[in-house]
Amino acid sequence: MCHVFAGQDPANYSFETRSIRLMGHPTSVRLEARFWVVLEDISVAQGMPMSKFLSLLYEEALDIHGEVANFASLLRCCCLNFLDADFDHQRLSNESKQDLALSA
Predict the structure, then answer these.
(1) CA atoms of 57 and 63, how far apart (whole Å)
(2) What pLDDT digit, counting tens, does each position of 17-26 carry?
(3) Are 32 and 15 within 8 A, CB to CB?
(4) What class is the 9-77 domain?
(5) How far apart are CA 10 and CA 80, in angstroms?
(6) Where are the domains of the chain?
(7) Which of 28, 43, 64, 67 is in Cβ range 3.0-4.6 Å of 53 for a Cys bridge?
(8) Under a CB-based contact definition with an 8 Å cutoff, are residues 53 and 99 in contact?
């Protein structure tokens, strides 16, 4: 039963650390490699480079919650939501278009 999970390529779950800037401050985020692939897909769906997507996501989470206690966990959950069969990809696309219109 677990062979489908246990037998996956170890490269999927090897850690990858990336340097990013959040609100102008350099930091690093350590995620499993597969999550970085999904984050690339999300940023493409948003029509922006991943660096901009991560920065905007951080700023929006900060505005909504007042703090971002664990950004890496937030990113993992974003990936899971994006991959969920019930995720509203149309809403994501519409929000992205609205944000681009506001910034123009």
Answers:
(1) 10
(2) 999 999 899 9
(3) yes
(4) mainly alpha
(5) 19
(6) 9-77
(7) 43
(8) no
